[in-house]
Backbone:
């Protein structure tokens, strides 16, 4: 695990800054204060921007990348079997964790909590509002998970860093669109980045045990 951190120092520095900032923000302000501060600071350009940015947190981004890898592997005959395995296993693990936690906690979403509060709520046209299964944010988890997977399947580090910055925008978009609380986005980002290295670490541990004891 330490090797993964040191070999991808810039990626994890940026991510840890995000985590620390998110943690401090939630210690200093209540979820209501954060949500309505974000909700008050809106304009038509931001509405359009975040409405489409949030789509980058859907599973289609994984499927598109998988198709590209499959094409490279089977049509162009470049060996991308390792990348395909990493992507599939990480995606399935992400889906399992996200769906399980959403159903276990089944927390209400912001619109469900505040719709009768009497406070003015700005909603973006064309966005379907969801009321339950708030924790964790699946879009955020998907975007951050995809960014971390890029570390293991791309030789260059720049695609992963770009994907990480996009993931941060996706996380913010979930609060801007009034779909998730800060805690949901925070948890989604930590779980998303945590799953791929955890799977890689588990594989290394298994191989080590197999080598010495089996």
Residues:
């Amino acid at each position: 695990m330490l090797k993964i951190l040191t070999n991808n120092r810039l990626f994890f520095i940026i991510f840890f800054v995000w985590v620390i900032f998110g943690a401090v923000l939630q210690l200093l302000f209540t979820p209501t204060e954060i949500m309505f501060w974000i909700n008050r600071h809106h304009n038509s350009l931001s509405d359009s921007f975040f409405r489409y940015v949030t789509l980058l947190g859907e599973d289609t981004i994984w499927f598109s990348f998988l198709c590209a890898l499959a094409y490279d592997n089977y049509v162009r005959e470049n060996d991308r079997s390792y990348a395909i395995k990493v992507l599939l296993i990480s995606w399935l693990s992400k889906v399992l964790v996200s769906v399980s936690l959403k159903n276990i906690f089944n927390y209400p979403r912001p619109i469900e909590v505040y719709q009768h509060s009497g406070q003015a709520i700005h909603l973006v046209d064309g966005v379907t509002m969801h009321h339950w299964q708030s924790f964790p944010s699946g879009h955020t988890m998907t975007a951050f998970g995809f960014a971390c997977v890029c570390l293991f399947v791309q030789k260059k580090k720049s695609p992963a860093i770009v994907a990480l910055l996009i993931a941060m925008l996706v996380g913010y978009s979930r609060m801007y669109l009034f779909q998730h609380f800060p805690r949901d986005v925070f948890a989604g980002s930590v779980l998303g980045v945590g799953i791929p290295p955890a799977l890689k670490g588990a594989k290394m541990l298994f191989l080590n045990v197999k080598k010495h004891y089996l």
